[in-house]
């Protein structure tokens, strides 16, 4: 597949323009102009129109303690009121909020009235167990209605949730619980994925073992399967017992707009994941506004975002955005390849999905599957309900874009290639489907009000056609507020002094010389993007060297991969003689299992290469650029004369 950005242009079809929330390029430009002319006024107007405030705000943006910006700070609101109650109060309680499809294909529909009652019951149960405003609650749950309810229930009482993806290990979970100082964990006995039952509660037990997380007072367990689990009396309680007898109404906690709605841990360029802190008012505003404009969500839509609630995409485009607008959405428990790789297409057909939002890595693997097994090709399914497609998490290569457009979208559905990050809370650079002409491989233009730009190392604008560093010049409502417990790291990571007070995204980008369209060229720091999952190279290196019996030294780099976008490649020096053949294979497996245990299976290196030592300059610096060439299988063209031991290049050529 070619990575060249396509020079094809797809104008929005008339059907997409007509009746769109943002209809036509002139409407897009008018919004941008409004934001440019009166920045605070523009965001204030959106916040008043889209959100319900208990106490209206009078202040919009407070920059006095930059870069710790505050939005709508004297306003009060509640996120779960905005996502649930207000629709019920408007007489829309019988509308379906969630169509849940389980791994085994069984379907449950939940109305807004039911979702509200379940949220209120759990909120009351949390309160009864002493959880109060400002407490942190860790959610380690499968894709489920209960997971969404757990998040909404925390929001209802002003507790700050921190969802940990169910694929993270006990060690990763423990780190997050400890860093957040959480008082409670909500989990399930097991999760059902791909026809298998996978443990969750056992991992929680492991994470909390030996009193390693003394702040945790209780563990509430959703009974998803019949699987048996260990039980800690006095700490553990079934979810169904906890909510039994709780009232189905609960007065929302009206919190300040800046109150932390959630923390979400993500990888940075140093070893320790950082707890990205999001606000209540500004975050919810952008979640709702982007759902409305980027997905053009209407009452007649069936919206499906395939992300997991453990990632930011699941937060913004499952739990918060679509519900804030009173939409109807799919929540899917399973995986795209079970019972076969036609599952997504089959579900689109079955539920008459109109808007479908997924990741390039899923598309690429389903292309491969369809190429090898004709039966799972989308052409075998009726996908005519679709009107809009979306992509997120990593660059979508033009070949995958074209396939998605033609075979899934039937050539008629615009594709919104949405660039954003855990830190940005919602879409930053994205087409609007009824306005923006599309170019495959480009995320096109900034969302109205987002001041994305490309600058050099000193913060000066670079001309279009010339690559540089992606920044956002002005603060925006849904931006990260701080890194939990580490404001200095927040400043250092996102507001380096040389960038004139601009937000540093961590990505490189280039704008087209003719139309100014943005194309993301990839991370400029030590962060990898594997199947749309963010991984720090140092995080994986730390995990490898913590295998102290075996590993003396490790360096991790990324290399391009046709399916996963990037693949993890680890260079390892062992504390024993360099292995080869079957022994090397066995040790590589052992190291992958170790990394899975330390971080989670998503962090397993695809390639492991062993050397007597690592290529270093005479001053002792690991030559990472050289390792990246080796990982790609390129012939090394760099100057190796400063290498301490040039012979190891040959050793590292072999991947296990
Ligand atoms: O490198 C960019 C890439 O994903 C990173 C953010 O990862 P995360 O915080 O996990 O959030 C992913 C879901 C929003 C970015 O720094 N990225 C995300 N979307 C795109 C992208 N790269 C290119 N095109 C995109 N549409």
TrEMBL record:
Keywords for this protein: Acetylation, ATP-binding, Ligase, Magnesium, Metal-binding, Nucleotide-binding
InterPro entries: Ac_CoA_lig, ACAS_N, AMP-bd_C, AMP-bd_C_sf, AMP-binding_CS, AMP-dep_synth/lig_dom, ANL_N_sf
Enzyme category, top tier: ligase
Acetyl-coenzyme A synthetase N-terminal domain span: 28-83
Modified-residue entries (N6-acetyllysine), positions: 621
General function of this protein: Catalyzes the conversion of acetate into acetyl-CoA (AcCoA), an essential intermediate at the junction of anabolic and catabolic pathways. AcsA undergoes a two-step reaction. In the first half reaction, AcsA combines acetate with ATP to form acetyl-adenylate (AcAMP) intermediate. In the second half reaction, it can then transfer the acetyl group from AcAMP to the sulfhydryl group of CoA, forming the product AcCoA.
Necessary cofactors: Mg(2+)
Annotated Gene Ontology cellular component terms: cytosol
Binding site residues for CoA: 193-196, 313, 531
Protein name: Acetyl-coenzyme A synthetase
UniProt GO MF annotations: acetate-CoA ligase activity; AMP binding; ATP binding; metal ion binding
The protein's Enzyme Commission number: 6.2.1.1
Gene: acs
Domain AMP-binding enzyme C-terminal per the UniProt entry, residue ranges: 539-621
Similarity field: Belongs to the ATP-dependent AMP-binding enzyme family.
GO biological process: acetyl-CoA biosynthetic process from acetate
Binding site for ATP: 393-395, 417-422, 507, 523, 534
A Pfam family annotated for this UniProt entry: AMP-binding
Domain AMP-dependent synthetase/ligase, chain residue ranges per copy: 90-476
Residues where Mg(2+) binds: 545, 551
Catalysed transformations (reactions): acetate + ATP + CoA = acetyl-CoA + AMP + diphosphate
Record PTM text: Acetylated. Deacetylation by the SIR2-homolog deacetylase activates the enzyme.
